[in-house]
Amino acid sequence: MSDATTTTAGSTVDYSGLIPNNIDLNSDSRVRKALETWHPGYIDWWKQMGPDGFQSNPVYLRTAIGVDPDGWAKFGYVRMPEYKWGILLAPQVEGRTIPFGAHRGEPAWQEVPGECRALLRRLVVIQGDTEPASVEQQRHLGRTAPSLYDMRNLFQVNVEEGRHLWAMVYLLQKYFGRDGREEAEELLRRRSGDADSPRMLGAFNEATPDWLSFFMFTTFTDRDGKMQLEALAQSGFDPLSRTCRFMLTEEAHHMFVGVTGVGRVVEATCKAMRAGGIDDPTDIERVRALGVIDLPTIQKKVNLHFSLTLDLFGNEISTNAANAFNTSLKGRFREDKLTDDHLLTGATYPVLRLLDGVIVKQDVPALNALNMRLRDDFITDAAGGVQRWNRIIDAAEVPFRLCLPHVAFHRRIGEFASVHADPDGRLLDAAAWQKYRDEYLPSAADGVFIESLMRPVHEPGAFAPWIVPPKTGIDGKPGDFEYVKLHD
Length: 488
Ligand SMILES: [Fe+2]
Ligand SMILES: [Fe+2]
Hints:
Strand order of the largest sheet: 1-2
Bound molecules: fe (ii) ion
Strand content: 5-15%
Order of helices and strands: HHEEHHHHHHHHEEHEEHH
Helix content: 40-55%
């Protein structure tokens, strides 16, 4: 696919076979057969570990019909097991060259270079493992959806994470031979939270017990996904770059669901407080008596999901990250927009470290600090969401501000895994951490309270009292649109 004609043809999706695709799968019988062999296991996995219930209900979902930035999605009612999961790559960019690392300036690779095969496979497997994991984590939420609108958004996110698994499995099957096939099977075998066979990364083995957690997860953890995809979209391995570029268009909706979801919860709380004449946002009992989630508890959920997500960026100082960059496999966030040498020769980057029990900023070789840099870019990106929530609080004239906790808070990976810190980054001894933990992170009692609000609302246009309706519907639909047909 190197000439303009085939690139244009590749912008529409072929739905004639079992596996929708824009890569002319019909002419690649080896990969087509491999994927068709993998398909039944995927469907079994979806039925077993995908959304609990609602599998036979028509859901108003978008399906990709092309890969052009505008008009790639078609909306319609679909029963989830019949969703058209497929292989969609962004169009090949004519003459694309590798933007960074030792191979900078060379034509992008269409095949895997032998010397970085193992590292590349690992990057694809790690990304692939997160996709089904989040579906597993969210599988019980449909039963307590606060509206049909929200239920539909949950299922949209779920089917697209399923498609992201397909995206990575395609790369494994096409470019990694037998090892790739085995890895593709393993992706269906591991289970989020399983004691014997967990998912690969910590945050993807945590529970998503309620809808506030779902919105936090899609705000923060899906945003980690965005950052990883942005870095992989820079890859010298062109098929990975193209795959990730299309995945990013889907990912944007997941973060929209998260940021607007939390915003709607915040707004319901502020409105109820105003109507109930409560001025003090920390008067938790009175706020909760109104049937909404108090702002301090929302802050605790921010603290939890933000800190779990930071762990996904790995160690602050990492030779693996340096290798992935040097070998031109994984770049920086928007590498092609940066204006340095793209090799990082002699460059340094400031990293927060724990030295002699004190948190200090230290300049380290930039190549070793790439995880840190991506994490900093993530924090900047995530801060935009928090700002939106604070604007809602300000507009209601409630004296409260949500904020992101310090990077040393509640960490299990990296520099701060060995210490306790409060959300402002002050180090605490173990006794103080135990004493204050429930002020920083959701307590068992907070969980019980939130759980008590999680009652399903199935009337079209109706919303649970702890969340306000969205400003606009999906695909321009009116407020009382039946996004999921429960009685069909
Ligand atoms: Fe994803
Ligand atoms: Fe996502």
